Amino acid sequence: MAIVGVLALQGSFNEHIAALRRLGVKGVEIKKPEQLQNVTSLIIPGGESTTMAKLAEYHNLFPALREFVKMGRPVWGTCAGLIFLADKAIGQKIGGQQLVGGLDCTVHRNFFGSQIQSFEAEVLAPELASKEGGPETFRGVFIRAPAILEAGPEVQVLADYPVPSNSLLSSDPSIENAKENVEEQSKVIVAVRQGNILATAFHPELTADTRWHSYFIKMANENEEEASSSIVPIEVDISCNQKQLSDLPVYQ
Predict the structure, then answer these.
(1) Which tens digit of pLDDT belongs to each residue from 115-172?
(2) What is the pTM of this model?
(3) DSSP 3-state helix, strand, coil percentages of the chain (rounded to 5)?
(4) Catalyses which reaction (predicted)?
(5) Measuring CA to CA, which residue among 119, 130, 129, 98 is closest to residue 201?
(6) C-beta pairs of 161-167 under 8 Å, 24+ apart in sequence
(7) What's the fold here for domain 3-246?
(8) Under the phi-then-psi rule, with left for phi > 0, alpha for psi from -120 to 50, and beta for the rest, what region is 159?
(9) What is the pLDDT of residues 38-67, one digit of tens each?
(10) Helix (H, G, I), strand (E, B) or coil at 130
(11) Cα–Cα dist 184/200, whole Å
(12) 108 is catalytic
């Protein structure tokens, strides 16, 4: 049975473990760098990104997390986890925070507003439906949620969402440079995949819909199969050893 690590510093890690359990997959809490050696895939949950970053720094997790991503291990970031995985984040608190990186995108930390502006909405995700079945929409839970403003050429967009009329675009100077582009498109990106990295701005773990977890597990399984197929068996010539053994006396 597959074992998925879930970063358990703060946030909704228990909910992710419960969702994995419903699919028959074991999720284990990851709190220390050495624990990453016991898993081949990882979920970075939603939570308060600045707090999570401070705790990760305190436990010296950033070097191990970055190495985990660079090795091509499957990693999924939800909400705050998306911020962690982005190469660039704006709208951060004074002093900023460390990022794991690896995902070629620019994310705005609180694009959809403060805690009281959290919301739920039906989001179109045809790629998810084609791979996992079910309706083409899912119930997105956006809690003080980020959004991807720009994505690199190797990033596959899995879902986007219309820019709300009360978005921070009208008042937040930190996204002034991206303002015209976002307004022109009238939507922002809320789910992406780039190779071994999956990222969502919302919280699938807070719903009964486990399709995103199933999608990630299949990513992890594909990665394991590719790793196994790349192992070339070593042929050893044992004729020399056999000759030496035949020359030895045999005791009855």
Answers:
(1) 888 999 999 999 999 999 999 999 999 999 999 999 999 999 999 999 866 554 444 5
(2) 0.83
(3) 40, 25, 35
(4) L-glutamine + H2O = L-glutamate + NH4(+)
(5) 119
(6) 161/121, 161/123, 161/187, 161/188, 161/190, 162/186, 162/187, 163/187, 163/188, 164/112, 166/113, 166/117, 167/111, 167/112, 167/113
(7) Rossmann fold (3.40.50)
(8) beta
(9) 999 999 999 888 899 999 999 999 999 999
(10) helix
(11) 22
(12) no
Which among 16, 108, 203, 213 is annotated as catalytic?
203
State which amino acid sits at residue 62.
Answer: F
Q: Which of 15, 105, 108, 205 is catalytic?
A: 205
Active-site residue 122, yes or no?
A: no
Q: Where in the chain are the domains?
A: 3-246
d(CA 161, CA 147): 9
Tokens linked to 247: 């020359």
Closest CA to 99 of 60, 64, 53, 155: 53
Length of the chain equals 252
Q: Which amino acid is at 80?
A: A
